[in-house]
Amino acid sequence: MPRHPLRKSLSLLFLLILFAIGSLGVSLMTGSVSIPAAQLWQLLWHDDGSVQYRIIHELRLPRTLSAFGVGGVLALAGVLMQALLRNPLADPYILGVSGGAAVAVLGAMLLGLPLAWHAPMAFVGALASILLLFALAQQGNWNTSRLLLTGVVLAAGWSALISFILSLSPPMQLPGMLFWLMGDLGDALTPSLPLAVLLIGLVISLWLSPALNLALLGSQRAAALGVEIRRLHIYIYILASLLTAAAVSIAGAIGFIGLIAPHMLRLLAGSDHRILVPGAVLIGAGLLVLADTAARTLIAPMQLPVGVLTALFGVPVFLLLLHKSYGERT
């Protein structure tokens, strides 16, 4: 595996920072009312009493920052899961954690619980899925392949429960549930929570980066170098699962961001998690901001579920990246 010079890695991170900032600017300027870049900069810092100022600060800025935080959280969860299973196809959604969170939130909707209950219910559902997954995977010899296969089966079970809940839902609630299930940032106007979760997860992941790099050498070699592999696996899985639960509680089920962003950066910068962790966060955050911008503007005044757009974009891009990755190995 080639080692990239520090200067090249820092240059790549700088370009990704520009990409993330650019995506924020595009989101804030684009909508039913277009705002030029020069006017946007003034409106961000000075209240001139205009309608444009209210549009920026009451609608676009909170939603854009929420999309940034959720995208970064999903990408970070993807990095951790791929490191855990040493498989670029790994993703928290595949392992059923998001399914457990979604079942809990949909159950809260069905019972008519207030919106404030959604986040804690998502965490409860994710933790229940974690405990069930490890309990099932540890029946016999514990290994990542067994964990992955168990997660796939568990995800199918959660999907069946989701269909069951939807079949019991009153007709008046069903459209909102389906829209949320496809991924929706329309009500995500409190960006402090996803940004706080992203910051905490980023700090912990950077702290774990040296151990993650050693784990790439294989369990036996990493253990010989002082890494407690089993404990590291548990820490990573719990952290990635809680990150996913936070994203699901805020924006519903948004797929492919956690799968594509780490894989895309790995092709550019290798597998050094000191670069991969912050770089994937910037890519995932920028991609979701752009996807949400498209979701609210393509057929305005109607809005599309952002999860639909990430899937439409993610499937061909991931297939292309997968082809390129395997083409380089042969």
Structure description:
With 330 residues, the protein is mostly helical. It has one domain (6-329): ABC transporter involved in vitamin B12 uptake, BtuC, CATH 1.10.3470.10. It has 13 helices and no strands. It has helices at 6-29, 37-45, 51-85, 97-110, 118-137, 144-168, 174-181, 192-215, 219-224, 229-251, 257-269, 273-297, 306-329. α3 packs antiparallel against α10 (229-251) and α4 packs parallel to α6. The longest helix is centred in the N-terminal third of the chain and has 35 residues, at 51-85. The chain is globular, with a radius of gyration of 20 Å. The two termini are 15 Å apart. The mean pLDDT is 85.
Which descriptors apply to this entry?
330 residues, 0% strand, single chain, 13 helices, mainly alpha, ABC transporter involved in vitamin B12 uptake, BtuC
The CATH superfamily name is ABC transporter involved in vitamin B12 uptake, BtuC
- CATH topology call: ABC transporter involved in vitamin B12 uptake, BtuC
How helix-rich are the residues, as a percent range? over 70%
> What is the structural class?
mainly alpha
CATH architectural name: Orthogonal Bundle
Whole-number mean pLDDT: 85
What is the element layout, followed by pairings?
Layout lengths: L5 H24 L7 H9 L5 H35 L11 H14 L7 H20 L6 H25 L5 H8 L10 H24 L3 H6 L4 H23 L5 H13 L3 H25 L8 H24 L1
Q: TL;DR of this structure?
A:
With 330 residues, this protein is mostly helical. Helices cover 76% and strands 0% of the residues.
